[in-house]
Automatic annotation (TrEMBL):
GO terms for molecular function: ATP binding; UDP-N-acetylmuramate-L-alanine ligase activity. Belongs to the MurCDEF family. It comes from Natronincola peptidivorans. Cell wall formation. This is UDP-N-acetylmuramate--L-alanine ligase.
Length: 461
């Protein structure tokens, strides 16, 4: 564990391995804004790296021991293993090393009002939505979000106040290195089973996360999720609940959807009217995300009328039900959904959207997740009219041959119109040939499945 103060500068030069990642690049920008000499490496170039170069970072493409130019501290992302040549070189030179989560936690300690958004699903959307509510209420927060948010011009915004907000990922229990004043737990589900043994192991991690919040702080928890209800009583801080079906402090009632699937609803707080809210993003799952953000905005002292007025200004984030364009009169949408629960929620949102037929193109993400949740994935696509499953995106894992996309398709109901197909251009060609005006094409996954949507749109140029 490092003892790090952004303002002390006892450490001068910080090197980040995997600096091009969405979270690592945000950390680098925070460090640059506080006057640190920042260097870093990644396997490929990107717009995020160009932005860091423009702010003064030294960027290396590719990992090599020569990239270690005597930094005072090395920070590495979760994807960087101990046999990385830069980590080996840092160890040989006696340079301290910390992982991304520890560094982010140390940065978080500087802020009196730090908000950490945790949960198996919805972290990026809720973080983005609450970030904008804070921004529009002139709280001037520092924002770190796991996606590209147009309203702040990217994945980070440096504020000048004591307010800070970030996602809190449960993978390898990394969020236990954080220091939240307000912690949000959206839901708890089986995921990351390459690390966690079972749901009880996952719940125990969230239980520890809740205990991180100081006595004077706040835990905001979804009362409709039984797994969340099981763990929140162990927290010693103030508890604020929200929900739709189960009695909670903040509740949404009278939910209606417009022609684009955008919900409007009334909110009560402890049984008293709190306001009428309209969202500009589709789906019932976003009502839950909005309730969490509304509860947090209240705790942060934002006037309910200000929240009510501004919440519709959130138009979504890249790769979250992201409407990319039209092909042959059909709408093309991309979404990050990579878990069975997320796929069902995204397809439910698509059902509310104008369409004739729904094309669901899914790229499974990691072999371990696909294997562990194979039966759940097979049951997640019932709302789609056409289903195409691509090859599994390996991410951080080797292929042990035990699970394939073909096996997933074989497990699906034979009455579903499901196909396994390989090759993104081949898939785009197939969709283009069979697409009808009024159809909705939905690419889903945490890998590079969005390239199919891009290839499809390019056919119109």
């Amino acid at each position: 564990m490092i003892a790090f103060d952004l303002n002390e500068h006892k450490i001068h030069h910080i090197h980040l391995i995997g600096i091009g990642g969405i979270s690592m690049s945000a950390i680098a920008e925070v460090l640059l804004s506080h006057g640190y000499h920042v260097s870093g490496s990644d396997i490929k170039d990107s717009k995020l790296l160009d932005k860091l170069r423009n702010h003064g970072a030294d960027i290396f493409i590719g990992h090599a021991k020569e990239n270690i130019k005597n930094p005072d501290l090395v920070v590495y992302s979760a994807a960087i293993r101990e046999f990385n040549p830069e980590r080996i070189q840092a160890k040989e030179l006696g340079i301290p090393q910390v992982d991304r989560a520890e560094m982010l936690g140390q940065i978080m300690k500087r802020y009196q009002k730090a908000v950490a958004v945790a949960g198996s699903h919805g972290k990026t959307t809720t973080t983005s939505l609450l970030s904008l509510l804070m921004e529009y209420a002139d709280l001037d927060p520092t924002i770190l979000v796991g996606g590209e948010l147009d309203n702040i011009g990217g994945n980070i915004k440096i504020g000048k106040s004591q307010h800070f907000i970030t996602e809190a990922c449960e993978y390898v229990e990394s969020f236990l290195k954080f220091f939240p004043f307000i912690g949000i737990i959206l839901n708890i589900d089986e995921d990351h089973l390459d690390y966690y043994k079972d749901i009880d192991h996952i719940k125990n991690a969230f239980r520890k996360f809740a205990r991180l919040i100081p006595k004077e702080g706040f835990l905001i928890a979804c009362n409709d999720d039984p797994q969340v209800r099981d763990i929140y009583e162990d927290a010693s801080c103030n508890l604020v609940t929200y929900g739709i079906e189960t009695v909670a402090d903040f509740m949404a009632t009278g939910i209606v959807f417009n022609e684009e699937g955008h919900p409007s609803f009334k909110v009560t707080y402890k049984g008293t009217s709190f306001g009428d809210f309209c969202l500009s993003v589709p789906g019932l799952h976003n009502v839950y995300n909005a309730l969490a953000a509304i509860a947090a905005s209240h705790i942060l002292g934002i006037n309910p009328r200000t929240t009510e007025k501004n919440i519709h200004r959130y138009k979504g984030i890249h790769r979250r039900f992201d409407v990319l364009g039209e092909v042959k009169g059909a709408r093309v949408i991309d979404d990050y959904a990579h878990h069975p629960v997320e796929i069902k929620a995204t397809l439910e949102a698509a059902m509310q959207y104008p369409h004739k037929k729904i094309w669901a193109i899914f790229q499974p993400h990691t072999f371990s997740r696909t294997k562990a949740l194979l039966k759940d994935f097979a049951k997640a696509f019932d709302a789609a009219d056409h289903i195409i499953i691509t090859d599994i995106y390996a991410a951080r894992e080797p292929d042990d041959g035990e699970v394939t996309s073909k096996k997933l398709v074989e497990l699906m109901d034979p009455n579903l119109n499901a196909l396994y197909m390989e090759g993104f251009e081949h898939i785009a060609d197939y969709i283009y040939r069979n697409l009808q005006p009024g159809d909705l094409v939905l690419t889903m996954g945490a890998g590079d499945v969005y390239r199919i949507a891009e290839a499809l749109l390019n056919k119109m140029e």
